[in-house]
Amino acid sequence: MSYFNYKGQKVFYTATGSGEPCLFLHGNTASSKMFDFILPLYTNDLQVIRLDFLGNGKSDRVDAFPDELWIDQGRQVVELAKALNCGPLNLVGTSGGAYAAINAALAEPQLFRRVVADSFDGDALPPGFAQAIIQERQAAKQDEQARGFYEWNQGPDWEQVVDLDTDVLVKYEEKQTRLFLRPIAQISAPLLITISLEDEMLHNDAPTECARLHSRNPLIEYRIFEQGAHPLLTSRAEEIAELIKSFLQQP
């Protein structure tokens, strides 16, 4: 198992496949294991690098997540890119990982080549975000399948990880915490956003949000799908894999 150091703690990562390196970033309450079943769709064409964000999966645990969680996760991505020292990396982030991917590219643009933000809910929180998170997590804890997903990703202490994650997301709305280091429109790497209109966990007006971002920066592209559960990266795995690989192969 491989680890890199971030602020004195160990962060787990692994690499599979061959080709141009691409770092896959998991969402909140998940870990790099969420990509296990879709790896064969990518590893013939890419070297897939996955990490467990600090406090998740096989990485060191934390007493609390930082208030600016997605900015901090972006900085973890930057540190891994520097540790790997393998030239500009592609980034594929899904759900919360999409926010981390964008923040990494905003923080150190020279380290990243292209960015995919999958199942991304825009650059502002929707009204009622905190209450929606609380309700969603309470329901998930009562759902056998969701509990199994948490435990599979996090291990036996899954409930503590989920509770800490819920706490920090609720504070995002309560404290009006910033989501990004800088406005997304300032990104200098080509960015592809993929969204499903059926995604029950996204609450912003996706078509309007994406069109607005594209109008401010033509490097920001988007594809909106009529169908697909959260995250789109796994619910429509084969179709999204082909789209992502095509986007990443562009010069």
Description of the molecule:
- The chain has helices at 69-84, 96-107, 129-141, 144-154, 158-174, 206-216, 232-235, 237-248; strands at residues 2-6, 9-17, 20-25, 46-51, 89-94, 112-118, 191-196, 220-225.
- The chain is of the alpha/beta class and 251 residues long.
- It has a single domain (2-248), classed as Rossmann fold, CATH 3.40.50.1820.
- An 8-stranded mixed β-sheet has the order 1-2-4-3-5-6-7-8, with helices on both faces.
- Strand 7, helix 6 and strand 8 (220-225) form a beta-alpha-beta unit.
- The longest helix is centred in the middle third of the chain and has 17 residues, at 158-174.
- The model has no long low-confidence stretch (mean pLDDT 96).
CATH class: Alpha Beta
Order the strands across the largest sheet as they lie in space: 1-2-4-3-5-6-7-8
Rounded to an integer, what's the Rg over CA atoms?
17 Å
Fourth CATH level, the homologous superfamily: Alpha/Beta hydrolase fold, catalytic domain
Instruction: Tell me about the largest β-sheet.
Output: 8 strands, mixed
Indicate the proportion of strand residues: 15-25%
User: Structurally, how many domains make up the residues?
Assistant: 1
- Unreliable spans are none
Class from secondary-structure proportions: alpha/beta
In CATH terms, what is the architecture? Answer: 3-Layer(aba) Sandwich
State the helicity in percent bands.
Answer: 25-40%
Helix tally equals 8
Number of strands: 8
**What spatial form do the alpha-carbon principal axes imply?**
globular
The CATH topology is given as Rossmann fold
Average pLDDT figure: 96
What is the end-to-end distance?
33 Å
Order of helices and strands: EEEEHEHEHHHEHEHH
